[in-house]
């Protein structure tokens, strides 16, 4: 069966656009010609959207209803392919297992006031949440699966990706190319509560799954330098601004580990504007392998994250809970490093702009 990504490629639009067109999202502003092209591509590839699957399935009294709690805004979900992929995987597996997503609660909505969450058979939580929020959710639902977060794996089911291992692979790749001066650009940790996100600024509370293995390896080799470490928001503009900051310092590292593809794309733009060649002057590696990663110049060396499979695994774990499993389970999906043009052999000692 064709996937959402196949339809997006055929229609020459983003996965998010395909998802919203097929769900008949009334908030989507898109040309009618684009909407028709997406529908035509879906029909041509025999892709059955979630809405069609719901219509064609036989609704019975035994059909289970689940809730989806997403700790990011609707706009951010559509902008970030990571969260879009999670959502697509969850929806696809729910349709396959004849589960109904009857309720979606987003960041900023009060859980305790959501009467629509009553009488659900289970809940999937997407995003990093505070311990207080974990307790609040668990008090209402004893069948909960966390995605992109793993609070107390002895109690809760969870699905994550092996960012720690992927970072180690990317570091090994850079070191094999002769790099010793390796910088890091990452995002601040944001822990969500049911009322508001809590952004944590100090170095102890940055996103750790990528930063800690980087720091450990650099320390073990005697190369770590905090002057080459930068944190900000998870956006392309932030990647651009942080790389500009690094360039302005002078003595630029020969390579950077960057915590997401959007951050990396912004960083490469900053290098280009300053006349710094990637990878001849500065090599870049990153994470996610979003659709555009292989098409930018240079194409990104990046660790592919299987977000759709993460979403599917979460639904499978929830179904097992519904069927009586009592022992907690944690699934850690591997990442797949894609070596492309943005990383190369060290060709300089130092660079001052």
Tell me what you see in this structure.
With 353 residues, the protein is α/β, with parallel strands linked by helices. Helix content is 39%, strand content 19%. It contains 12 helices and 14 strands. A 6-stranded parallel β-sheet has the order 2-1-3-4-5-13, covered by helices on one side. Strand 7 and strand 8 form a beta hairpin. Helix 8 (163-176) packs parallel to helix 9 (208-221). The longest helix is centred in the first third of the chain and has 16 residues, at 81-96. Mean pLDDT is 84; it is low at 53-61 and 196-205.
Layout: helices, strands, pairs:
Blueprint: H1 4-11, H2 15-22, H3 32-44, H4 50-56, E1 64-70, H5 74-79, H6 81-96, E2 99-106, E3 122-126, H7 131-140, E4 144-147, E5 157-161, H8 163-176, E6 182-187, E7 190-192, E8 197-199, H9 208-221, E9 229-232, H10 236-249, E10 255-258, H11 261-273, E11 283-288, E12 301-304, H12 307-322, E13 330-333, E14 336-338
Parallel strand pairs: 1-2, 1-3, 3-4, 4-5, 5-13, 6-9, 6-10, 10-11, 11-12
Antiparallel strand pairs: 7-8, 12-14
């Amino acid at each position: 069966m064709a996937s959402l990504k196949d339809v997006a490629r055929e229609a020459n639009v983003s996965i998010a656009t395909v998802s919203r067109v097929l769900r008949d999202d009334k908030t989507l502003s898109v040309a009618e010609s684009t909407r028709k092209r997406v529908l035509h591509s879906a029909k041509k590839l025999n892709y059955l959207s979630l809405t069609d699957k719901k219509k064609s399935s036989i609704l019975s009294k035994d059909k289970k209803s689940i809730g989806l709690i997403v700790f990011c805004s609707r706009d951010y979900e559509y902008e970030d392919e990571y969260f879009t992929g999670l959502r697509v995987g969850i929806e696809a597996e729910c349709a396959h297992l004849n589960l109904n997503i009857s309720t979606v609660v987003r960041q900023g909505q009060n859980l305790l006031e959501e009467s629509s969450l009553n009488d659900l058979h289970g809940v999937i939580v997407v995003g990093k949440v505070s311990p207080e929020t974990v307790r609040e959710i668990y008090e209402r639902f004893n069948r909960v699966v966390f995605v992109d977060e793993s609070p107390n794996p002895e109690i809760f089911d969870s699905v994550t990706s092996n960012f720690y291992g992927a970072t180690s692979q990317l570091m090994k790749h850079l070191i094999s190319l002769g790099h010793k001066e390796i910088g890091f650009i990452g995002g601040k940790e944001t822990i969500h509560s049911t009322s508001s996100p809590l952004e944590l600024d100090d170095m102890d509370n940055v996103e750790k799954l990528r930063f800690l293995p980087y720091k450990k390896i650099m320390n073990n080799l005697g190369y770590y330098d905090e002057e080459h470490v930068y944190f900000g928001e998870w956006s392309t503009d932030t990647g651009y601004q942080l790389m500009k900051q690094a360039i302005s310092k002078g003595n630029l590292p020969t390579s950077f580990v960057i915590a997401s593809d959007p951050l990396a794309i912004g960083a490469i733009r900053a290098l280009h504007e300053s006349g710094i060649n990637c990878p001849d002057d500065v090599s870049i590696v990153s994470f996610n392998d979003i659709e555009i990663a292989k098409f930018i110049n240079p194409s990104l060396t990046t660790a592919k994250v299987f977000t759709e499979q993460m979403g599917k695994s979460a639904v499978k774990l929830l179904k097992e809970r519904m069927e009586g499993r009592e022992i907690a389970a944690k699934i850690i999906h591997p990442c797949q490093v894609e070596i492309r043009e943005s990383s190369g052999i060290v060709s300089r000692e130092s660079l001052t702009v």
